[in-house]
Structures are given as C-alpha cells and as structure tokens.
Request: fold
Amino acid sequence: MLNVWLGMVVLLSVIWGLKAGVKPGLDLHLLGVTVLVLCFGPYLAFIGLSLVLLVVTGNGDAGFGAYALNGLLSVGVGVVFCHYYQRVIKCFLPANFFIYVFINGFLGAALTTMVIGFAATAFLAVTGAYSWAYLSEEYFPYFMLLGFSEAWLSGMLMTLFVIYRPAWVVSFDDSSYLTNK
Reply:
C-alpha cells in the first residue's frame, strides 16, 4: 500500500506542476485532494499533499516563505472539507455503490475544489493582494470550471479503483456498499 501512496504523491507532484496562471500568485491546477482522502484517509492524505506541496515549492513554483500558508489553504482546507463531507454523506445517505462513486467521488471533488478556491480568493481579498471585485470576476469563476474537471477525473479514478483495486480505497468496504444490494 505504501507504493500506491508514494506513486500518487509523485503523480500529483507532476500534476500540480502543470498549472495555468491568471496573474502572479493566482495559479490554477488540478488538486487530487478527494482521491487521496478517499483512498488513504485524511491523515495520510494531508501528509501526502504536504509532500506534493514541498516538491512544487522546491521546484521554484512558490516561495518557501509561503509554504505554510499554501499548505493551510490548499491542503488543510481541502482535506478537512473532504473528510467531513464524506462523513456527512455516510451518515445521511444509504451505503450504495452509486452514491459512493457519484456523491463522494464526483460531487465531493467538485465541492472540495470550489471550497479551496473560495478560501484562497477570500484570503487574497482580505490581505489586499488583489481587490475582491477583481478576484470575484477574474479568479474565482475559474474554480467552478476547475471543479468540473476535478470531479470528472476524481470520479473516474475512484470508479476504476473501487472496481479493479478496492484494496486501494480505505473508505470503501465491499460488505457495506455491495452486499445485499
């Protein structure tokens, strides 16, 4: 299982390096938070995403002075939201394969991306780096589009993992989601 976790960390390091920028400090890239949280739980997901951020920071894409802040906004907010979203869904919706894939995998990834985008937008506006008007018109709407692509990719990966490699997904239990359905 360690090799799968390390492989995902390396893959996400490459994906985070592929980004589009609006202006300095306003970069967009796929996150992969939902896949790591669903596959490994919140603790290993936080450690893995922190390592990804360390690699991206080491490549010179961000300053080391901003590592903790980037970690809080992109890693911390995402992992916490995704974990609690998954717990709420588990409490209120029945244990069903399609609910797991579509609500946790697809919708959870989109919402996680949008929450991270809102947190980053609000932080940049509060600190005065850019005006709220500019950020709400030129930065945050792209997180809606990014949320769709994140949902598609994460949902597809979770579907494949659950079908072909369910042992890779800690949050999925065959006996809960498939037995007597």
Observations:
- The chain has a mean pLDDT of 89.
- The first helix runs from residue 2 to 17.
